[in-house]
Write the structure tokens for this entry.
Amino acid sequence: MKYIFGYETFENELNKLNIQNINYKSRKKGIRGEIIVADALNRIVTKDIFVVYHPKFSNFEPDILLCSSKTDIGFKVIEVKNWSLSNIKKVDVLGTFSFEDKTRKPSNPARQVELHVDDLRLILENKFPHIKNFLIDYMLIFPSISKLNFEEKISFKWSNEAKQQFYKRFLFKEDIRKKKDLLNKILDNKKLKHIKGQYIPNHELLDFTNGVSIGSNFDKYDIEKIMNENSQLKKRLKYKDEKIEDLKKNKKNLQNKLLIENKKLEEFKLEKSHHDLSKKTEINNLKKKNDKLKNFYIVFSSLIILSLLLIFGFIYINQQNDELNNHYTGIDTTTEVKQTTTGELTTIETTTESIQTTDTEEDIDLNTVSNIIQYGNEGDDICLVLFLTSFNYDYDSGTKFLTLSDDSGSIDAVIFEGTYAPYLEVGEKYRVIGYINYYLSDKELIITEITNE
């Protein structure tokens, strides 16, 4: 035997609307959606499952109530929303629906059903005081909306856990087509387990469902007590809603403050990066000046020493010539002249060789790493093809630190922020243009242009 109560109310209400010629288009659509769900539920009703359509809990009337004492269904309040997908704009993680029609306020049908659940719990606690735990839950069914189309339009940006929780409460057209799928969905959507030995016998449950299907017969005192408790509960819910709104506002304020602080932090990092770069440039300029002064002092000292050596050499040669003239009178002056001339020519030739050697060093091409390290001077321009051996990036300053190499050796190189560089990959060959720099007494390359070879 199937226990179904109130199914005839659908036809009665439709006939009433038709007889009175009332154009309640949305109400008629809602009733037709309830009939679709009712027909699906009637297929799963057994002797242990009771279904009541349009039950009445005092002044409260949800769409459907399922009851069972011997299955995991317990008491389940079902709300049917025969909405069109085209009218829905978005849904948040709490189940609040926003609509395309801007004049229509956002709606949270789950909150509406939760109020029915609270009212039902109060009535059950008064009706069956010996039961300590009632398995009471709720579901919302959209009989005219496909789950697949719903997901395509809404484009959820929720976590997987949030989506699972949502689909436990909200059922769609696909979920009610097959008897097995619908029963599994209803059984899967449970919150409590029965305590062994505590259940409502079928005859008592039948009496309860029969009562709510035609209006409650509880005495006046119980109704007033229930309404009182329900009023207190609504006040608590309102207080919670206000708290939630306050938390949302605080969260928004904190997010704004966080954005401001992050912006300040980025500005500080940028300012620090510019400061570090200017400081590094200043240090490099001082190094260049010191190196130039050092080189100048070395060259100047070398010239003075060389000049002194030449002067003392001439003096020494003249002294030797004078001694020879004093000890060997009568020797052919031509020979002395030759000796002197020979000495002077030797000195001149030696000086020439020194100059030639210097010229040779200056003419060496800086086309290998080895030549750069041995013969390169600070500020010398370079242009050659090298392999990238290693690569590091300083995120604070935007500076790139490289190690470049060829068959003759390797050398460190720097690319400052603002210098364009392609995507750099270790092991690849690149054409490098720049100049030589000293850093901590070692030579390095400052790269002004780098391209793929």
